[in-house]
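Dear H.,

Thanks for agreeing to be a second pair of eyes. The structure we're designing against is below in token form, covering all 263 positions.
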């Protein structure tokens, strides 16, 4: 299916009818590296949790199942607020290294996605496609921020930020601790290159940083940049992404379900 770096993505609509849509690979190092990963994964089933094709709205049930899997005693809660979600995210971070090595660990990632689903910024304008742990050795360390676009265009394919952590504005919005060590450890630039990708469902022009955020971040920014060996952190780093492929169609993909890639 490849001709002049063109390829197809296959979707299903609400009537379960297949739709094939054309894409052209972007001319960049990041796009070429991503395309090589996709070729290895084209026949591997996607991860429904990673690709947001799984219901993660029932946080209480998911949390209890996670605790059984982790062998810890759950705490009772009624109100789902940001402090609770921050504490749950810390629990996920602390248990990830051990639980990610266990078999049948889907509940670990379901728990993580459920946490972010319930945050105010948890809803996205993206159709996400990922393979989760099936991606395996194709994941690599790479400074992706250098390749971020000035804006995101509807229907194009982009490389998502996919770190075990939060972006700086998210950290600030979630009222995480005002502590340099915690900022350095939990705030992450885009340094993990995965085969995972997203298709934009609308045009996005990076908004300006909130003045309150800039004032807060000023105290931690220099040390954070040094810690992660990056030169800057601007609005495009926070709200944009590296372009992978350009859409050769005008289909509204909002209600479509990804099926596979034809390469």
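And this is the sequence the design step returned. I haven't edited it by hand at all.
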């Amino acid at each position: 299916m490849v001709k002049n770096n063109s390829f197809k993505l296959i979707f299903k609509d609400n009537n379960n009818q297949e739709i094939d849509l054309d894409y052209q690979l972007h001319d960049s190092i990041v796009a070429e590296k991503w395309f090589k990963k996709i070729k290895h994964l084209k026949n591997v089933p996607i991860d429904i949790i990673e690709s947001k094709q799984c219901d993660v709205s029932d946080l209480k049930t998911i949390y209890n199942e996670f605790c059984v899997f982790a062998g810890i005693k759950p705490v009772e809660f009624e109100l789902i607020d940001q402090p609770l979600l921050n504490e749950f995210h810390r629990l996920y971070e602390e248990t990830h290294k051990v639980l990610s090595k266990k078999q049948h660990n889907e509940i670990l990632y379901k728990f993580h996605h459920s946490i972010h689903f319930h945050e105010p910024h948890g809803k996205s304008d993206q159709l996400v496609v990922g393979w989760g742990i099936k991606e395996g050795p194709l994941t690599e360390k790479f400074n992706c921020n250098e390749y971020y676009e000035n804006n995101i265009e509807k229907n194009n394919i982009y490389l998502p930020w996919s770190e075990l952590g939060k972006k700086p504005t998210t950290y600030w919005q979630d009222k995480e601790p005002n502590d340099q060590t915690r900022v350095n450890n939990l705030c992450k630039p885009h340094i993990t290159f995965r085969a995972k990708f997203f298709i934009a469902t609308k045009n996005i022009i990076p908004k300006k940083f909130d003045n309150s955020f800039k004032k807060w971040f000023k105290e931690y920014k220099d040390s954070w940049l040094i810690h992660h060996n990056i030169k800057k952190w601007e609005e495009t780093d926070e709200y944009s992404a590296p372009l992978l492929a350009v859409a050769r169609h005008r289909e509204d993909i909002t209600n479509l379900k990804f099926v596979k890639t034809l390469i």
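Two observations from my side: The longest helix spans residues 82-99. Strands lie at 6-12, 18-25, 126-129, 140-141, 157-158, 192-193, 197-200, 243-247, 257-262.

Warmly,
E.
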